[in-house]
Fold these 4 entries.
Entry 1:
Amino acid sequence: MFQIVASANYLSAQEAFKSLTTHHPPPHGLHALLVKGNRQIHVAQAALQRSEQLVVKIEDQLELESPWNPESPEFQLVEKDMVQRQYRLALDELERLVVQHLFELSKLNMNGTGE
């Protein structure tokens, strides 16, 4: 599961870095914009490096022979499990809220009024 999250973070950081490093024409003497853009590039590059380090660390801990990618069966299986887990968590939260509401109605002697 951590592999999926780390890979997703890595891919998003990589895309952000690529989008910031593409050549854009200079903003006609607006030095502040250049400084801000340069700062964003450095932040994106640092995030990419941290994500790469995390992916390598997790791959070493899991003793993976090759890195997972979105097309690999292991990646797809874990991604499916994560979606199911999020669904179950949302369902549990909904159940908690319904029980809480029913309890509040019973405290007010209003249970069964929705029938």
Entry 2:
Amino acid sequence: MRLIPVSARRLIALGIAVIATTAPAFASPGTLLEVASSRSNLTMFVSAVKTAGLADMLSSAGDYTVFAPTDDCFAKIPADHRDAMMRDPARLKAWLQHFIVPARVAIHSPDGDLGSAMLPTVGGGTLEAKLSANNDLTVGGARVVAADIAASNGMLDTIDHVPAP
């Protein structure tokens, strides 16, 4: 057995202590609303969630999966439709609830990828998830662009298309 001199042991111990006290702690992800707010391509979605009165739901405890339309999706909606929707919180809420599933749904998991499934939404409808031959997942006809973005109260997935409300 090789002994390490006392000064070397102290230096190693000091190094470990410095790392332990200065290394950032692994922070748990924020809520769905906080995670969405941190993404630069979801500013319109976050604004819509707040206008529709869904901010509390996406900030509270629970398990949800949100298929969030990106800013590019919102830009594809004709401006007059988008503006009218943003001025009508009840209509906006009903539309957004079509993209929120009241359960944590992982697109990719150790047990395998999500294939074809019918996902119930908080709005009372269903979203059809389908896996294409080239392994693109679509949900409600929209391609999932970024999947399984973890939040403390669910999963966030971004989608590339939504039907105009």
Entry 3:
Amino acid sequence: MSSQLEQSITALEFALKTEQDGEAYYRQVAQRSQNPIVRATFVSLARDELYHAQTIERFAADLKASGQWAESELKARVSDQSGEVLTMFREALDGGEVQKGHSSDDSEAYAKAAEFERKGGAFFRQQAEAAQAESARAFWQFLVEEEDRHLTLIQTTLNYLDRTEDFHLIMERAILDGG
């Protein structure tokens, strides 16, 4: 086995462990929080991390079996402002449900999640830059984009929780403006 192949497999194993740890942590936060927005956000993040772990496992198995990075169309399973998270906010607005806020544990969870996503994104970015095969670069870039979207999700939901009334005004305007 070549040194480059060994390095790729080691990087994939590290990425897999990271995603599995993220999924477990996000599920734990979702179960612990009393805030429905926090729960929904972290359930969504956990699902995404599971998808990433499964994707990494497939690529690692292919790489080990063939010695080459597989060509693949990667499909994002990402929760972002245009999807289910925006729906969560609109449902809270439509239902007249103004969140009471969030606990210090929730705040700590968001801070830890943001740091987790930043570190993951930096590692994946480093792997993308070092990749020699185009398919390897595309794989790592896919994960970079996923981590960036997660960071946006985390920041958006935290903004919602910190400034719920302001967020509702922004959402009302977006709904009235058609956006």
Entry 4:
Amino acid sequence: MEPLFRANCIASMKHKLFFVFLSILILTLSLGGIISYRLYARVSFTTTSSIPPDHDLWDILLKDFVKDGHVDYQRFLENENLLNDYLTLLQSHGPSADWRREDKLAYWINAYNAFTIKIILDHYPVNSIKDIGSKSQIPLVNSTWDIHFIEIGDKELSLNDIEHRILRKEFNEPNIHFAIVCASESCPILRSEAYSADNIDKQLDEQATDFINDKQKNQIAKNQIEISKIFSWFKGDFTKDRSLIDFLNKYSNTKINQDAKISYLDYDWSLNK
């Protein structure tokens, strides 16, 4: 009976392993579908407003509560009614197809940054934006950036929706990565003014120049560079028609050799306060 018992055990183990493998495969495919959707599905709006809102109130808040990229969250919290007024303005003036590119860019970048402040305030005090939401976070599935707390037009959006399904999907503009701010020390600094349609391209160029030449974010030498993981995570956005070195050289004060050694710095997710 012992050989038969052993054979039955092996068969049972194989059966269990098959179902474990099948479960993992189904989970992987499901997560892949979710991630693909959240990266590539375009967001469209049924909009009643065709007039872009002004961002004057957001501009005042940024000038008062952001210094050199450091955010005074306590003062934002004490004046949260003003932030909520601005968010309400955004929500009631959803984007329209007839807006200019510049109006749309300014709208969505300001929206991303303002709603990032909002989600921090809703959970303040926190040490990191990653402390918000699920304890075991899967990027593009259940992270802080996947929480659907933003209502604009007829849609409920997450920060990832704004970044990946709108800004990255609709605009061929790699410099957005230096303008949208994830409330962390290694992020680009939050600008002490609102983005505006009239100045958006100048502002984005300034953000790129400041970020790339910031020695706390990137360490650049002629033959070796240690750069932000932003350039790894979104490399495709920076290299559509050039090399990564070519992109960096457009803004870097130090000209980098094409064969320079590239490595990436650790990312500091502590709050940018």
